[in-house]
Write a structure and sequence with these properties.
Length: about 70
């Protein structure tokens, strides 16, 4: 189990949040409901979805590296 209050826990949470929001952007009903606002608190979801869709290779490699770290090194 990773601890959310440690640095690697925060990285795991951030990567999962970005991946989830990028997935929500591909689902039309969730895209209209969750990602319609571009400012404010709800804008965080939109910005995470944009990061996940534009930097999908870097995010995927980061997820693989973090999974390797958690499974084998920690």
């Amino acid at each position: 189990m990773t601890n959310v209050y440690s640095f690697d826990g925060i990285l795991v949470f951030g990567l999962l949040f970005i991946c989830t929001c990028a997935y929500f952007k591909k689902v039309p009903r969730l895209n209209n409901w969750l990602l319609s606002e571009k400012k404010g608190v709800w804008g965080v979801f939109y910005k995470a979805a944009v990061i996940g869709s534009r930097l999908h290779i870097a995010v995927a490699l980061s997820c693989l590296a973090m999974a390797f770290y958690i499974v084998f090194l920690k």
